[in-house]
Amino acid sequence: MKHTQIAIGILAIVLPLGAQAIEFQDIERASFRNDRSALTALENKLTRTDGEYVRAYLKFRQAIAAKVDGDADAAKKALEHCANLLEKEMGADGENVESLALLANCYGMVISISPIKGPVLGPKSDRAMEKAMELDADNPRALLIDGIAKLNTPGLFGGSNEKAEVQLNAAIKAFSVEDAIDPYNWGHAEAYLWRALARQALDNSKEAIEDLDQALVVEPEYKWARVLRQQWSAR
Fold first, then answer.
1. Which of 15, 84, 154, 164 would be 150's cystine partner, CB 3.0–4.6 Å?
2. Which residues, including other chains, have CB under 8 Å from residue 122's CB and lie 6 or more apart?
3. Mapping DSSP to helix (H, G, I), strand (E, B) and coil, where does residue 46 land?
4. Threshold 0.70, pTM exceeds
5. Helix H segments across 114-222?
């Protein structure tokens, strides 16, 4: 994957974290509502029993919410914190596909906010994503993040709407066979939303709206999917 500028997106991690002071699904619910105050409240409940990934993932979701609200400074700080936590959790030779994929997404989102960081963070994002795919090419979140990257990467650097749709198709297929009871399984609804964005860019409006409907079946509180559904249906 070439230099990426990943927009609001997604993506992440399934780790044996042990007992936790907060519920992972609470982060999900607050994020889908874009509820920044709820995300802050969850951060205040973190304890030593919460692993580095949960902390990093919460920061990632805070960054997305801040970016949606147009608070670029807060988003950038949260992303940098997220990246630092993941780098610390993995060490110099990270081998966890989920951590690598989320790290690639963090770097890409920083670039989307501060393009001047592209020459440094672009290659780092590429390496993290490439390694994640080498470790597990069927990981649903890695496929999701790679699809988002391809949707937001200029063609000159290897991105395209068509390539994004292919990866997002694969992500959705992978989510359909993954253990549904896994408490850290996230990204399914987002895969439909990002495929909707790819299909809309390819002028497949009917299929794009169908994808948004499916995203809302998976996650009824998905605010971004609902807003896009209203906008596109009104055209």
1. 164
2. 2, 3, 4, 107, 111
3. coil
4. yes
5. 118-135, 140-152, 161-177, 188-201, 205-218
